Amino acid sequence: MAEEDDIVLSELDDEELVQQMHDDLYDGLKDEVEEGVNILLGRGWTPYRVLTEALVEGMRIVGVDFRDGILFVPEVLMAANSMKAGMIILRPLLAETGAPRMGKMVIGTVKGDIHDIGKNLVSMMMEGAGYEVIDIGINNPVENYLAAIEEHKPDILGMSALLTTTMPYMKVVIDTMKEKGIRDDYIVLVGGAPLNEAFAESVGADAYCRDAAVAVETAKKMIAERAGSNSAAMGIS
Predict the structure, then answer these.
(1) Is the pTM of this model over 0.90?
(2) Are 212 and 145 spatial neighbours (Cβ–Cβ below 8 Å)?
(3) Of 14, 20, 105, 152, which sits 20 to 30 A from 56 (CA to CA)?
(4) pLDDT at 2 over 60
């Protein structure tokens, strides 16, 4: 596309630049996303505004097309990597300005299971939606989950499994949380190819997420509901 090559990002006005950044994110163009972030910051945009209007909105569009089968895992990974490049610039600035955070998630694959593509995709999409994500990796015994939630105090615990033999371990983690009296402090989301809603319910999870786009939607909804019920409980209307 010849005209695409002629686009000079710095010559676009703010609205055009944000639209172009959505397109560049969608196409996985990491360098262009970084350049766009720096241009907007240079024009006096706050880091939080750049995050929400340029990056999060761009990844929301990617998430919708992934959910609808228009985009597939390789394209989403490229888009998420572009988002990460923008986040590397923004993260320290967001910390300095004390920007509001969407929420925090600890995620890992359960003990006995070393599959991580689905988990990585959820991590990237959640980061893309503005959440802080602590990824504890694969093959996690219950102690790893407990240590991570104790240290990071997340809003959400995410567990992934791809094997029918490792799925039941999710119940071990949730039952241990119940024994320690901390189960209700966290939203527990589970995912993986062999799982379904009935399984999630049977092990005591809050929800089953069939893919990364659904995980983001579910996280947003549940955190909002929890914030609403907490406000109501404190008598805040």
Answers:
(1) no
(2) no
(3) 152
(4) no
Residue 236 confidence (pLDDT) above 60: no
Q: What span, in angstroms and rounded, lies between the C-alpha atoms of 130 and 55? A: 9
> How would residue 237 be classed by pLDDT, with cut points 50, 70 and 90?
very low
User: Residues 87, 62, 196, CA angle at the centre, nearest 5°?
Assistant: 105
Q: Could you tell me whether strands 156-160 and 132-135 are parallel, antiparallel, or unpaired per DSSP bridges?
A: unpaired
* Cα dihedral 79/128/220/92 (nearest 10): 180
**CA dist., res. 106 & res. 22, Å (int):** 27
What are the tokens at 9? 């990002």
Tokens 């572009």 correspond to 82
Closest by CA position to 130, among listed 160, 158, 90, 71: 90
231 band by pLDDT with thresholds 50, 70 and 90: low
Buried b (16+ CB within 10 A) or exposed e, 217-230: bbbbebbeebeeee
Q: How far apart are CA 200 and CA 194, in angstroms?
A: 11
The residue among 27, 32, 122 whose CA lies nearest residue 40 is 32
**Could you give the CA distance from residue 92 to residue 174 in angstroms, rounded to a whole number?**
34
CA-CA distance, 199 to 189, in Å (whole number)? 12
pLDDT at 194: 93
Nearest to 158 by CA among 111, 107, 204: 107
